[in-house]
Every structure is written in C-alpha cells, then in structure tokens.
Amino acid sequence: MSSKVAVPNKYELVKETLVLILAGGRGSRLHELTDKRAKPALYFGGNRRIIDFALSNCINSGLNRIGVVTQYAAHSLLRHLQTGWSFLPQERGEFVDMLPARQQIDNSTWYRGTADAVYQNMEILKHHYQPKYVLILAGDHIYKQDYSQMILDHVTSGGKCTVGCIEVPRSEASEFGVMAVDENLKVKDFIEKPKDPPAMIGKPDTSLASMGIYVFDADYLYDVLKREVKSPYTSHDFGKDILPKSLEEGVLYAHPFSRSCMGRNTEGEIYWRDVGTLDSFWQSNIDLVSEKPQLDIYDQRWPIRGNPVQTYPSKFFYNNPHIKPVDNSLISGGCMITDASISYSVLFDRVKIKENSSVDHCVILPQVTIGKNCVLRNCIIDRHVVIPDDTQIGLDIEEDRKRFRVSSTGKVVLVTDSMIKKLNGEDVSSDENLD
Question: Binding site for alpha-D-glucose 1-phosphate: which residues?
Fold first, then answer.
C-alpha cells in the first residue's frame, strides 16, 4: 500500500517535470484530411491548430520544458512549432524541442507505438533533460487542463504512474482504456478498448476512461520501458502494455479530469474531445460557434495560444436585402463575403464566398474560395479548395458519396482540393500542395 508523502508546492514540481507530447500519429480515421499533415497540425477553431491546446495547457500550467515527438507527415507541424512556439527563453532552461523519429534502433525501425516513441528518446531524457517527473500527452485532443494539479496529485498519491481519466457513456467506452479505482483512486483494474466496457459502481451507463495523459516518476518510466521492450509480445503501447504492468506492480493511480479541468461549458460540465474522426472534428468546431459555447476560446484566464496569420480585416458586402447575413459563426481575418448567407459555421483566414451562396454548419479551412449560388451544408472544406459556381454539397448524401468523402454516420461531407480537381478532370497525381 503506497503511503502519502510530503510534497513541495506546484511551482517546484513543474520545474522538475519534462512534458512529452506524442504528435506522430497518422490520423487515419480523418481520411484525406490528414493525407499531408499530422493530426495534431490540423487546423481548429478559426485560427489555431489542434496541438495548440496541449501546448497552451503546458504554458498556462507553468510547464515550460516541452518535447514534441513527431513522425508522420510532420512538415506543417514542425513549421508551426518553429514559427509559433519558439518564444521560450533557452537560457532559462525553457524550450519546445522537436523530437522526430530518427530510427534509433536500426535503419528501418520507426516509432512502433506510443511507449516506443518515448523509449527511443530515453537517452536524451536521461542525460540531456534530466527530469524527476515526465508528463506524457497526446497532441490531438481539445480541452483545457491545469497539468500542475495532476502532477501534484501524482506525487501526493505516492504512486509511480498516474493516468488522467474521464467519465464517458458506456456505449462509447470501447474506444478507450477503461479502469476501475478504489476510494483512494488507486487503479484496481484496467482494460484497453474492451468490447463490453465495465460500468462504474453506482453508474451503470458510465465508464471511467483513460484520456491518454500520464505522469511518471522518471526513474520508474525508464525502468519499465527497458523491461517492456525486451518482451517478445509487446505492442510498444502505453495503454496495452505499460499501464497493465504498472497496475500489476501496484503503482498505478487515477487522476479525475474534473479536478484539473479549466474549460467547462455554461452548465459547468467539463469539456474534452478526441477529434479523431470527421464527425468529432466537425462537431468540436461547431461547438464553438453558439452564444453559449461548449468551450470558451475567448476566456483569457486560460488562453489558447497559437500562431495566427497576420491578415487584413475581413470584409462583408451586402447589396441584396433578401440575403440573411452572418449568424452564430466564427469568421477569421482576411475573409471576403459578398451577399452570402453564413450560419453556425467556422471560417478560417482568407476565405472568399461569392454572391447568393449559402453556408450552414460548415468548417471552412484557410484560403478556400466558394463560388456563386452554392449551397453547402454540414461540410468540412479543406485548405485551398475552390468550389465551382452552382455547387450543392450536403443536400443529397448519396450523390455526395460519388464525389466526396462522407463520414461514417452520413452526417458530414469532406471536400478536398484533389476531389474537386478530379471532378474537373484535372491531373492530381503530381499534386504537391503541402499544408
């Protein structure tokens, strides 16, 4: 039984902590949206990227020693980190370092899983960064969290590993690692992505799910990774391999997200989203546009930083009195809207929408042009797309399936530059339009 230990204050703890953000995932469930960009580099909320949430949480929590582990299609992610997150003073020991896959084991072995991504950088951690604690984050979730509270709870518990957890509907819990805890939040059981998720005691329709956020004592992390990599049956994954090992050794504790959440909706409910599918990416953006949003991105008490593009102000031209103008939408800089109706949508920078077009519940990424007399409903329009005049999308899903990508629920339509070019008979084999 782990005993309670005396702990220093949060300020001392964060100075002894290194953050590793795992940002190398393929994001295959987002289909063409992540063909040329890593999922954490995907645009979000009008003028941010998904990874800005994890990075901002770090800065707001006082955690200024950060490594970002990259692998797949990392060009735009690395560029974003270099231009938007290079302000921390190195002379004070603060940094956002990039840790790309470097094939440390041999010339053909990339990162084989989340645990292996940390294992392959372990020598850098031990000899260069020398942390006492390691906070491991996913780079593709939307939420606001004070990580310093989680680190404090970790040290207070006396455990060696702490996993962030959140209550989710049992019907959705098969997508997560699911755990059971005792009254001291010590984890008593952990199952990765179970087909029949166990319910919480007293809450038959709810399961306790892992958020993919972990705090480790650094020495224990090094030891368990070295032991696990020798196993012939390992998946090199934290959820499948490392957490069960910590559970078996009796050093695994849970941290409820409600204790450190800094972003709640107007009803006081915590907000956390995994934007790993077209539906969840679309919905998380649409969550921002209402008068009382699910997540308040304007709250400067816990700001979400980024690298906004410097643009001219947006321009709106309305000569037709019968056109309903902009309603409940986020419009970024440099947009030009002419006699177009926009409702419950998110427009990123430098979007052009021409006469008599209607855009409803859409997420429009940067530098998109929408022609005249177009009707768009429940769409995600990727960067650089040019929508021809008189185009209708989102009104006939079966017709949309022939031309574009329709989400698994049939609710959202993804449109990319290559799809439009293919419709126009253009050659897309040499399309090198990097994000």
Answer: 111, 177, 192-193, 210
